[in-house]
Specification:
The structure is a single chain. The protein has helices at 11-24, 28-47, 54-71, 81-99, 106-110, 131-139, 143-154, 159-166, 170-190. The chain contains nine helices and no strands. The longest helix is centred in the C-terminal third of the chain and has 21 residues, at 170-190. With 196 residues, it is mostly helical.
């Protein structure tokens, strides 16, 4: 029975993987290309946890991309490149916030286990501080399920945008997301990540 792993990576994922391989070899042009592609996305991503402080978000995004430059050789391909890059940015954002707790309210600290989106309590298991385990869990999903998690939670695309991008119906996006969450929850529970 097929688990979907035969699905080919998207052209964007293949392009990013090639860029990371070249960056691991010290290719500055490849890093520049990746930087131009991801820096605006990471600023937006980081600013959501930084109370829309774009200046700090830009600094944190740059730190994350420097980390990508340094650790590109450690990208294992267990997740989409964009998921791996966003997890580095998220870790950097949380590290900044923990060093600067005075800028946060206690309730804000509690919300750091999530991206700043309207996730239900049921979804908290997916986005948490245990990035290594999360990435490992994502790596155990089929390509289709890993892709849908990445598009929804890391790239923050709408169902309509995902539907158009993947050339599938809105209902197929929703069904795929339902099973992706269910499967990922099962994997992470097996790995010892329990619901709060």
């Amino acid at each position: 029975m097929s688990n979907g792993r035969s699905t080919r990576p998207t052209p964007a994922a293949l392009e990013d993987t090639v860029l990371l391989e070249k960056i691991a070899e010290g290719d500055r042009k490849a890093f520049k290309a990746l930087y131009i592609k991801y820096q605006p996305r990471l600023i937006k991503f980081c600013s959501r946890l930084l109370k829309n402080d774009i200046a700090i978000a830009a600094d944190v995004a740059d730190e994350a991309l420097i980390e990508v430059w340094r650790s590109a050789g450690s990208f294992s391909g267990k997740s989409l490149p964009s998921t791996w890059i966003h997890s580095i940015a998220r870790f950097r954002t949380i590290a900044y916030l923990r060093k600067n707790k005075e800028v946060l309210l206690d309730t804000d600290l509690a919300s750091l286990d999530l991206e700043d989106t309207a996730l239900s309590a049921e979804d908290k298991i997916f986005i948490n501080d245990r990035n290594d385990l999360l990435i490992e869990g994502l790596g155990k999903l089929s390509n289709k399920h890993r892709e849908i998690i990445e598009l929804v939670y890391f790239r923050e695309l709408s169902i309509k945008d995902i539907s158009a991008m993947l050339n599938i119906s809105d209902n197929t996006v929703k069904t795929r997301m339902f099973y992706a969450r269910k499967h990922l929850k099962s994997i992470l529970t097996t790995m010892g990540i329990k619901k709060p």
